[in-house]
Specification:
The structure is a single chain. By secondary structure, the protein is an alpha/beta fold. It has 2 domains: about 230 residues, FAD/NAD(P)-binding domain; about 140 residues, FAD/NAD(P)-binding domain (3-Layer(bba) Sandwich). Helices cover about 25% and strands about 30% of the residues. The strands form 9 sheets. The chain has a 7-stranded mixed beta sheet with strand order 2-7-4-3-11-24-23, with helices on one face. The longest helix is centred in the last third of the chain and has 19 residues. The structure holds flavin-adenine dinucleotide. The site of flavin-adenine dinucleotide has 37 residues, from helix 1, strand 4, helix 2, helix 8 and helix 10. The site of flavin-adenine dinucleotide (FAD) has 37 residues, from helix 1, strand 4, helix 2, helix 8 and helix 10.
């Protein structure tokens, strides 16, 4: 959906010249120290550095190379391979295999012609337009931050690192692409019974409907394997949502003896060592748990000094950005893509922190940067969102939610939510068509 045109100038230093392709593929640094220039520039086009190669970052990399052929596009990613959040709940109970969710990144880098560096982004010198990484410095004309989320254990434990680490290692939540995915899968498959607690983060958090999907699929696994387990969902919200009716029906009709949903159960205190949790809806003991603390923008936004501040002067936890251009409010050479994005609208707050939105914004930002580089007006475009959630493993059935966006007369973004609460096998087919289409877009 197109809407207003906005003029944002290209940086004056940026001279467009003959199309010279950057070296595609994986870059190997030779020496490593804090002043090392990791990648000397090639060509005369702008250098665009993307921090984080997940759903949003990989999409942006592909489309930047396509829309600005002379650009030197560099993708910095800490993980050796791509791991998808979507489908990872189904992977937990073997509906899809590891190769489906875990993909090679070098192939797309070579196919689309961007430079992939496997490294940790450690900081920024925005005055000099430099990204610091574990392997040296990388300079940029435009910077895209696409690092996803972090688990804010400090909201529960303050500076008590022992409690944070114990919680992370003993009750992993697997909401970030890393080794926790395997740890959670193993935990589930070794679970012999008892009370499994799931805490949900307060909104906004990554993929709002997916913790309920995970509860359904874990319950289905327990039912199928006759494991005498109970799942207690401790939800800070007053009711299930989105797709609340669909989930309520699934919990009540498919897993009445397994899943209990506790509303208004915001976490007050967690004692991971003694397996006790205090919430606004009461205190609970557990045998095992999937403990999700509040989510925040990934560390890189904090390192860049670009976290928003609320009316109370405290950090919002999310990027401080223009709601329709996705640039940092204080630095228009920096863009945000994906879950780390900040406040968008007084009607609904944040865009859903979903892969669908990250993919859509990756394309929008690539197009907006291309418009700037070629001296055109920037056309602000709104995303859409679509999420499919499996609630039954046999027969396989899903529910789904769609979000549409438009502008009101004052330029405020409005959201329309359409829940598909009736679980059907047709939605499973739609889900696989959706994920294969998205994967083909950037992998
Ligand atoms: C269980 C589950 C189910 C989900 N289901 C759906 C679904 O059905 N549909 C849907 O649309 N969405 C779903 N999501 C949400 C989706 O996974 C996220 O919204 C999406 O991944 C966001 O993309 P992103 O690019 O912002 O972050 P990510 O995909 O997480 O990518 C961020 C990348 O940045 C890297 N990174 C972070 N910090 C650094 C650093 N300092 N240095 C180098 N690299 C760094 C990370 O390693 C990561 O690869 C689900 C998520 C989960 C966990």
């Amino acid at each position: 959906m197109l809407n207003r045109r906005i003029f944002l100038a290209a940086p004056p230093a940026l001279a467009l010249g003959a199309a010279t392709l950057p070296t595609a593929g994986l870059a190997f640094p030779t020496a490593i120290h804090s002043k090392t220039q990791l990648l000397p520039r090639t060509g005369k086009g702008p250098r665009i550095v993307i921090c984080g190669g997940g759903w949003g970052g990989m999409t942006a990399a592909r489309y930047l190379r396509e829309l600005i052929p002379q650009a030197d596009v560099v993708l910095l990613e800490r993980n050796p391979s791509f791991w998808s959040g979507p489908m990872s709940n189904k992977w937990l109970i073997d509906i899809v295999n590891t190769d489906f969710v875990n993909r090679d990144m070098l192939g797309p880098a070579n196919k689309y012609g961007y430079t992939l560096v496997n490294t940790e982004v450690t900081g920024f010198d925005r005055d000099k337009k430099i990204v610091r990484t574990a392997q040296g410095n990388v300079d940029y004309d435009y910077l895209i931050l696409a690092g996803g989320i972090r688990n804010a254990y400090d909201a529960w434990f303050g500076n008590d690192r022992k409690a944070s680490e114990y919680t992370r290692t003993h009750f992993p939540n697997a909401y970030i692409p890393n080794g926790e995915m395997f740890a959670l899968k193993r935990k589930l498959h070794e679970f012999k019974g008892g009370v499994m607690v799931m805490t949900l983060p307060p909104p906004p958090h990554r993929c709002p409907p997916s913790p309920y999907e995970r509860a359904c699929l874990m319950a289905w696994h327990m039912k199928k394997n006759k494991i005498p387990g109970k799942i207690l969902i401790l939800d800070p919200k007053p009711k299930i949502g989105p797709i609340g009716e669909g989930y309520r029906a699934a919990f009540g009709e498919l897993y009445p003896d397994i899943i209990t949903h506790v509303p208004n159960a915001g976490v007050k205190e967690v004692d991971p060592f003694n397996k006790r949790i205090k919430t606004a809806a009461g205190d609970f003991d557990f045998d095992d748990a999937v403990l999700m603390p509040p989510h925040q923008a990934s560390d890189m936004v904090w390192h860049a000094g670009l976290i928003g501040k609320g009316a109370d002067g405290k950090p919002t936890g999310w990027a401080d950005m223009h709601p329709r251009l996705f640039t940092a409010n204080s630095d228009d050479s920096v863009y945000f893509v994906g879950d780390l994005m900040g406040f968008v609208s007084s009607q609904f707050g944040h865009y859903p922190k979903s892969a669908h939105v990250a993919n859509a914004i990756g394309k929008i930002v690539a197009r907006n940067i291309a418009e700037r580089v070629s001296g055109k007006e920037v056309v602000a475009v709104l995303p859409d969102n679509l999420c499919y959630m499996m609630v039954n493993g046999d027969p396989q059935e899903e529910i789904s939610v769609k979000f549409e966006y438009e502008l009101d007369a004052s330029g405020r973004v409005l959201q329309n939510q359409i829940d598909m609460d009736v679980r059907t096998n047709d939605l499973v087919k739609d889900d696989f068509a959706w994920i294969n289409g998205r994967f083909n877009d950037f992998l």
